[in-house]
Amino acid sequence: MEWQIYIWAFLVGGAFAMIGQLILDYTNYSPGHVLSGFVVAGGILGGLGIYPKLIEFAGGGASMPISSFGNALVQGAISEAERNGVIGVMTGMFELTSTGITAAIVFAFFVALVFNPKG
Amino acid sequence: MARDPKKKKLTVDQKRYTELVRDTVPRPRYIKTALLAYFFGGLIALIGQGFIDFYRSSMNLTVKEAANPAVATMIFIGALLTGLGVFDKIARVAGAGLAVPVTGFANSLASAALEFKREGLVFGVGSKMFILAGSVITFGVVTAFIIGLIYAIFIY
User: Fold this and answer.
1) Which of A6, B110, B134, B144 has the fewest CB atoms within 10 Å of its CB?
2) In chain A, which residues have their Cβ closer than 8 Å to the Cβ of B140?
3) Which of A66, A86, A91, A101 has the highest number of chain B CBs within 10 A, making it the mutation to test binding with B?
């Protein structure tokens, strides 16, 4: 891949984070609200076909923010829906996100086993 | 305040006091925190892109396939830094720069798992792990389900 994608990754990934920070600073929403909002927004942009283009264009800049989780859920759901209709929505839901969810659960579990809470 | 509509009317003294407080409390430096978030969010995206290219070239994956192990690696780093107690220190500076990427998702799982460890493996770590990250999964899945239904019914 060309090196330009690193510049776009930095710019786009930073922009996502800054939007989150601005929402946190200027409203009363908690980080939980902001992250849920990002996932929903990523899902809607994914459904409209905008998010996959953003990932193509910015690479890690679009696939590292949590909004890509919403996008991946939607992409899995609609690609299976294409083949199997309504049932496909359910079977395809976690098709693309299972790596992330599995990794998060397993690593968090082992971290909790190995470490002790500080303070 | 919008939070409490039933709040009693303030007396004149209380009003003067709240104005005084509002003027003297140092205003948070929004521009600085926003720029710091931008920098750290961009940095994590850069590292993630590095992993994407690494997995793409070392395992002969397409760009799309390589994003999965890259995300898993970032989640591992986020969870590990949480366990080491480093995550919170960086997050104090980086703010949303660390929370918005998947590292924040990993941190919310790992920190909840750690925090409730003393309640036992089953009821503490096992069930309370999702106390923060659960809403992300719930809203993500519900959104994806609705959009998937729209696709299944109206488009195909």
Assistant:
1) B134
2) 36, 39-40, 42-43, 69-70, 73
3) A66
How far does B143 lie from chain A, in Å, by closest CA? 6
Whether A111 sits inside 8 A of B82 (CB atoms) is yes
Q: Which residues contact B75 (CB under 8 A, 6 or more apart)?
A: A100, A103, A104, A107, B102, B103, B105, B106
Nearest to B83 among A66, A76, A115 (CB): A115
Q: Do the Cβ atoms of B110 and A108 come within 8 Å?
A: yes
pTM over 0.80: yes
Q: Which pLDDT band, with edges at 50, 70 and 90, does B17 fall under?
A: confident
Nearest to B115 by CA among A12, A112, A55: A112
How many structural domains are present in chain B? 1
pLDDT tens digit sequence for A62-103 = 999 999 999 999 999 999 998 888 899 999 999 999 999 999
Q: Which domain holds residue B65?
A: 32-129
Contacts of A79 in chain B (CB under 8 A): none
Neighboring chain B residues of A40 at a CB cutoff of 8 Å? 139-140, 143
Contacts of B139 in chain A (CB under 8 A): 36, 39-40
pLDDT in tens, A21-58: 999 999 989 999 999 999 999 999 999 999 999 999 99
The reply to whether B2 falls in a domain is no
- Residue B101 is classified by DSSP as B
- Which structure tokens are listed for B155? 């488009």
Written as one letter, the residue type at B115 is: E
ipTM value for the complex:
0.92
CA distance readout (Å), B84 to A38, A101, B81: 27, 21, 5
DSSP A28: S
